[in-house]
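User: structure tokens for threonine synthase, please.
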Amino acid sequence: MTPHSASQRYLSTRGGSYDLSFEDVVLKGLANDGGLFIPEEIPSLPSDWQTQWREYSFQELAFEIFSLYISKEEIPADDLRDIIRRSYNAFRAKDISPIITLDEGKNLHLLELFHGPTFAFKDVALQFLGNLFEYFLFRRNEGKEGANREHLTVIGATSGDTGSAAIYGLRGKKDVSVFIMHPKGKVSPIQEAQMTTVLDANVHNLAVEGTFDDCQDIVKELFADPEINKTHRLAAVNSINWARILAQITYYFHSYFSLCRQTQSSNPTVRFVVPTGNFGDILAGYFATRMGLPSDKLIIATNENDILHRFWKTGYYEKKPVHGVEAEGGFAEDGAKAHPSGVRVTLAPAMDILVSSNFERLLWFLAYRTSETEETNRRRMEAGEKVQRWLSELKSEGGFGVSKEILAAAKEDFESERVSDKQTIQTIKDTYSQTKPSAKQANGHANGTSKPATTGTEHEGHYILDPHSAIGIAASLRSIANTPASTHHISLATAHPAKFSHAVELALKDAPGFSFETVLPEQFVGLEQMEKRVTECKAEWQDVREIVVREVEEERKGERMVYSQGKGEYAPSWLELEKASGGRAILKGSPEEIRGMYAALGQALAAQLPKPSENVETKDGEVDGVKYRLYWPKGAKGGLTTGIYTHGGGYMVGGLDDDDFLCRVISEHTNSALVAIDYRLAPEHKWPAQLEDSMKVYKWAHKNAASFHGDSNKFYTIGGSAGGGLALQVANQVLRDAELKASLKGIIAMVPVALHYDHVPDKYKDMYTAYKDNAKDTPVIDGESMQIFYQHAGVDPKDPDTFVALGDNHKSFPPTYITTCEFDPLRDDGFVLEAALKEAGVPTKHDHYPGFPHYFWIFPSVPESQEYVGKMLGGIEWVKGQM
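Assistant: Done. Predicted tokens:
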């Protein structure tokens, strides 16, 4: 492997595999000998890194760091930059991992790592890992069809956050199935809902009757099983996958430079404090410091499952039952345990771990560093032999001890603290009461601007910690008491407090005016009530193997596509709305009657909407007789992703004012420019007048994007109902235009028109039942309504330019986000569209709403409308993240 440096070649911690490529270790995950992959050596930083990297963005730092571990022969520089860009585009914070200062006098800072799609630090690594899987598989499968394509079966275990982050990183990825095991009843309700409400066909959730350690053991047994490895290419998504450790190195450097800018110092003294369970997060810090990042110490902050804390105190790594913190000497057993394995259930469930898998990687480096052997290869072999022996003792005897030299080497870089539940609660209370409006941001952007870092983590200026982050702060305060006042402590905030409502409410129940709703992100509203899919199983790896084999087979046959659910029951909130409004409204009749009903409905709904946001600028204009309205966030400086918005209304009703509120919300909350189009309406103007008008505005916007702060190379089309159809139709035309096609990067198709009920291809007929299910008396529109709309528009049922699911160029489509509603004649248009795009290899994301009719989200009094808008905004961010 000549083009690869030693830091770009990989070996197993147990000595059985050497000279592996980055692609090998990412796709394999776990070595054949049961070991974990590590680079042959840790690279040194360039001599000028402190000056050259100081002003780099998170993404630029990631590129420089990743390039030290990934040969450009494996991933060319431009491809790596693109993977990084797509991985972090969907993060809510511009800085990806911003710092705030909690206590300026104590030099105590918090590194917020929860600004990704699932509000946990693991998004930083798993968004990257998902895109790596996709990149390698695309390259391997180019030109292959059917059974000849390589398929990846991703296996993971989660104590809470890994599962949802992995699912969000892998959902909808072509040629990838993902199986996530979580201990049944031992993750928070929000964490469970984040996983089990994802209904994508390639996502499989397993609730295991056991502990997280049981789940981890099953993963390792599956990777070691020759039977399943003959038929399935298994890949790891837990932090045993090296790519996850690599991705997390970046935020140690990013936070260090943020602190340098704040303190105007070239080399501040820093300690990093890391809430630690499986040892992956703090191991990334170890790699950073061994590369050359200045760090006085890395502090391991554990809960009462404290195998790591005991190791640093005694040199023994033992799976002993956990103890109470009041036990004599801090190490005696008190018999308190939640499971025969010895794992204790705490308020920080993501850290309820008996054995930390990634500790094995550190053990190898400690054994290598303390070896007296001079010859490199022999030294590596001896380190692998030691790790193999230690891990065998752990399995057979429940623990092992290391030499005083190895323990001393461990203490050079690390200290440890154990924090009880009682102390965790007190830390949440104290932090809340002692932080005042507003927590000072410490990061400072390289361009000199500052953007609020927090997302729902403050209440009236008081900072709210989740229990894991609170453990880090408690450990930080102990360290501060024993270090010089000039030492800065950066404590890692690993999750948003909304994910752990029980602990937060327990701590702040007496706080004046506090309500948990104040920190609940809109993405979490109603999440626990949504439809779920999960398989319960015993903690037996053979049972899990059977489930994996069966479900992958069904998925690859297409039997696991999540199609419509058929007629179910209306959601209670919808029935309450109908009762309050005196009946069911359906848009039907003559064009005049439909327009009258639509106008009356619009007037009634407008009165219920809050005041439009003042954070968005608008400007009306006209091109070649077609009116449009521009939207962009106040203070925008250019380069905005731009949405081309086409309203709904059956091609017969609707205009710029009707969707103005929604357009403002989209622009503000996705940091997008938006161009809304007032196209001509039927029956006065037959099809394709609507498409022609939309194309005129698209072309104008492409040429003039800079005038409204847009980026002409980052467009997406967006619309609902007939407007969703237009979003697809415009995209279809743009992709055939040599001058425009490079501009289109995504599609947002909400309850779209995609297929005509009179011309359904045979392969979709069994799944296309929505018109039959919703023929009459369905709220808002029914099958008869659509007949009226199509008749007055004069559409051709066989025209692929109108009904895009019929088209033959789906392979050229960009990533597409789709929504569908159960009680909607257009329901299966969305499902057919999804199937057609997936068949063509197009990344798709699909949110389906059982119990609700077409366009239900326009009714503010329906609580689920907020959920819909939140997920739709998430869909836009997902599309942006694919760009």
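User: Anything notable?

Assistant: Residues 242-263 form the longest helix (22 residues).
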